[in-house]
Amino acid sequence: MSATTTSEVTTSVSLTAAPSSGKMRLDGQPTNYGDFRDDLNRDGYVVIKGAVPRERADAYSDAFYSYLEGFGLGYDRKDSSTVRRANLPVLNEKGMILAYAVTHEKWVWDIRGEPGVVEAFEKVYDDKDLLVSFDVVNVGFANREDLPENKPWPHQDQDPAKAGFRCLQGLVNLNPCGPNDGGLIVCRGGHILSEQFHKDMADEPRIPAWTPEWFGFTERGMQWLKDHGLEWVKVCADPGDLILWDSRLPHYNVPTQTQQDRFAVYTCFMPVADATQEDLIRKKDAFERRLGTTHWPNAKHVAGTNVATRDGKECSKSRHRPVQEPVLNERTYRLTGIPYIKSEA
Ligand SMILES: [Fe+2]
Fold first, then answer.
1. CA torsion, ordered 155, 133, 107, 341, to nearest 10 deg
2. 40, 121 in Cβ contact below 8 A?
3. Using one digit for the tens of pLDDT, what is the confidence trace for 223-238?
4. Coil vs helix vs strand at 239
5. 186-219, pLDDT tens digit by residue?
6. How far, in Å, from the CA of 341 to the mean position of ligand 1?
7. Residues sharing a CB contact under 8 Å with residue 29, sequence separation 6 or more, in sequence order
8. How far is the CA of 54 from the centre of ligand 1 (A)?
9. Bridge partners (DSSP) listed for residue 168
10. Strands (E), 74-134
């Protein structure tokens, strides 16, 4: 910190100079990294074009469709009338597949290990020792006639009591995602005003949440954002683009208004240095039992089960291991955190 301050003073560009090394700044102040980090800092989100080469992104999209068809429940990508609850694995109203060990399918791990994805996070943290979340995958179907309605759920994914930048979320987009297609919508610049928001709105009753690491915006909260000049932006992306956003940025996902299905795989990374040994041991256990986590790469929350519940009963297609077990290389194995667990000897 002191070295940075000295450099800023002597070069007289105190507010525009970015540190040459170290974790990137995410404080909304102008930076001059000369790459995606400047946009990420200013807006709270960014689209990294072609993080996954198009050919491989198309192959992952195909793998995703095949995975859904592979349940043998009647879904067929070529027949939109098969987009029905009974023909699909259990999805929540936001389009997330939470069970079936999907997060450890080979194609999901292959996406996590894509060099362009890993390198983006290495750049943000200036660190090659990273963990990746075992987060869910998301399907936003067109023609979702009997699937539960996806209502707006504007939120932040971190505890307002813990201010400042703490987590960078990411998703790899696998299908074309234009202005009217389903996908992420964000409140541009909202990360910067987060602290002020929570001071001003401290007396507003909280929307109930299962974890303090989630904050939902009420109507009054949404009005505050508007009154402070913030705008909601639908994030558009091509297959293979990586979308990054600060967990403080208000966001949610919108259903498609077109015939285009949306496929997204969430990929969140954080430095190993930010995790404790207990976190790493919990994460190892989640990996070995093929359980999922939330977006927190230190396995802050681990799913209790891979069993999907359909209408109050276990889904007939429940499974505890992936259809195709992951094939990890040296880089992706390190992302599990397992090699960083210290032996007790
Ligand atoms: Fe979220």
1. 180
2. no
3. 999 999 999 999 999 9
4. coil
5. 999 999 999 999 999 999 999 999 899 999 999 9
6. 29
7. 15, 41
8. 26
9. 246
10. 96-97, 130-132
Residue with tokens 């234009």: 178
Judge whether 183 and 223 are in contact, CB under 8 Å. no
300 token code pair: 């802050």
- Quick count: other Cβ atoms within 10 Å of Cβ 120? 24
Question: In sequence order, what are the beta bridge partners of 246?
Answer: 168
338: three-class secondary structure by DSSP = helix
Cα 162 to averaged position of ligand 1 atoms, centre (Å): 17
Q: Which residues pair with 171 in a beta bridge?
A: 243, 266
* Prediction pTM value: 0.93
Q: What angle do CA 89, 95, 97 make, to 5 degrees?
A: 45
Lookup: tokens for 294: 């939330």
> Rounded to an integer, what distance in angstroms lies between the CA atom of residue 63 and that of residue 57?
10
Task: Report the relative pairing of strands 313-314 and 309-310 from DSSP bridges.
Answer: antiparallel
8 Å CB contact between 96 and 301: no
All domains of the chain in start order, with CATH = 37-340 (2.60.120.620)
Q: How far apart are the CA of 86 and the centre of ligand 1, in A?
A: 27
Residue 101 in contact with residue 322, Cβ under 8 Å?
Answer: yes
Q: Do you know the residue count of the chain?
A: 345
* Beta-bridge partner residues of 169: 245
